[in-house]
Structures are given as C-alpha cells and as structure tokens.
Write a structure and sequence with these properties.
The protein has helices spanning 3-13, 44-68, 104-119, and strands at 17-24, 29-34, 73-77, 81-88, 92-99. The chain is α+β, with helices and mostly antiparallel strands. The relative contact order is 0.22. The model has no long low-confidence stretch (mean pLDDT 93).
Length: 120
C-alpha cells in the first residue's frame, strides 16, 4: 500500500482532520503527516513520545487479540482534539487527529472504507 497516498486521501475526506500518518512497529513514519498549513499542538519531542506510547499500546493489544479478537481502532478524546489509532494489520499503525467537534462515526467509517479500497 502507498501509505503517503492513503494519508492524503484521509486528509481530503474532512477538513477537520488535522493529521494522518502511518508508522511501522518501530515508530518509524512510513507516510503522511500534518495537514498543510496546520500547526501541531505538540512539540516534536512530545509528538515522538505520543507515537511511542501508541506503539506500545498497539503491541499490548496484539496480546489480547487471542481472547477478544483484533482491535480495529482506539480513540482518545482530549479537551482540544480527538486522536484515533487504527491498527493496519500486524506491521503498521495509522494515527489520526481531528478537531474536537469532528463526527467520530464519520471519521472512522471513511478511514475504514479508504483502507479497504487501498488494499486492492
């Protein structure tokens, strides 16, 4: 999959999506980034910390998949934004942040549709 193109498609679906990036299991970015003209609310150091914590969480969820099934996504809602983690198989993690007033169901549905469309 072309992860850069995938993330560009995600950003085009909703102007309230601030950030979309795919990372490998070592927290290395493999595509995507911040919406053009948008400024991150976090320092670069804090962004890296958040990615690392998301990777640790993702790996921990792999262990519970045997009992509960695979996790499709998780959501953290903060005072200022929403942050989604989508589990793209066993090797890649998609992180997405949106404005707080974004429609969670629409964001999730659109991203899942794009993921399966890009699998072909």
């Amino acid at each position: 999959m072309d992860y850069g193109n995938f993330c560009s498609q995600i950003l085009k679906t909703d102007p309230k999506i601030r950030f979309a990036s795919v990372f490998d299991e070592w927290a290395k970015p493999v595509g995507g980034g911040m919406r053009e003209g948008m400024k991150s609310l976090l320092s670069e150091h804090m962004q890296n910390e958040l990615v690392n914590l998301s990777i640790i969480d993702w790996k921990a969820r792999k262990d519970t998949a045997k009992m509960l099934g695979k996790t499709k996504y998780t959501l953290a809602e903060y005072d200022t934004i929403k942050r989604f983690s989508f589990y793209l198989g066993d090797e890649h993690l998609l992180l997405v942040s949106t404005e707080k007033d974004s429609d969670t169901n629409v964001v999730v549905d659109e991203i899942i549709k794009l993921y399966y469309k890009n699998q072909k």
